[in-house]
Amino acid sequence: MAKERSARSRSGGVWPTLLAWLSVIALIASALLMAGAGPAYRWELISLGDAFNLMRNGVYAATAAVAISILLLLISAFTRRMGAGVAAIFVIVATAALLYMPWQQWQRAQQAPAIHDITTDTQKPPAFVALRDAREAAPNAVDYPGETTARQQQMAYPNVQPLQVTAPKATVLAAAQAEVEASGWQIAAITENTIEATATTRWFGFEDDVIIRLTEQQNGVQVDMRSASRLGTSDVGTNALRIETFLDNLAKRLE
Length: 255
Description:
Layout: H1 2-11, H2 15-42, H3 48-79, H4 82-111, E1 117-119, H5 132-136, H6 147-156, E2 163-165, H7 169-183, E3 186-190, E4 194-200, E5 207-217, E6 220-229, H8 238-254
Antiparallel strand pairs: 1-6, 2-6, 3-4, 4-5, 5-6
Helix pairs in contact: 2-3, 2-4, 3-4, 7-8
């Protein structure tokens, strides 16, 4: 009996197994909280504040999973329970992968200015017409915020510039429409010179409005674009990235 108790003590008893299960449960809880926050808000089951609280709790659960796994790793090294050590390493790696995207978003939020309306023409921004009513019903203003936002944009996103192309306007308009459709945006209106559409983010379902404006010039067409969020003070760089990506893809489509 004494030898059996001594062997159990050296192996850590039930603690390695218990800690392994606790770390896995914490990891699963973290994944469910963080993954479910966006869809729950998008389906109007909870408010935006509650969704952010779910994400915050998910981060806490992930932190707990890592803390438990580190303790389990130390115990497994002392007791030579290799299986427990492998479980601990798995949870730590899985948690790091789970937190990578929120961490990346947080990094972008720290670097991005508190603006949500981005355009390639800050002096005469394309104006929403078909989407004006929808924007007036949203928290953010329909009109471009003005010079302060323009200065912040130019400092943070210097690559947001108009696209110059040497092609007929009709060809550019058709290519722009094709790119809007390929992007999965909902088109609100198309005129001879503009396309208005709404882009919906995948996770939370935030709606951002987009307008593309074509201006004929002596040697071709200038494509200007504006992307503005309906909700939120900062877009965490989403609108600037959307404009740059769209115009790059449009240029390739017109080659």
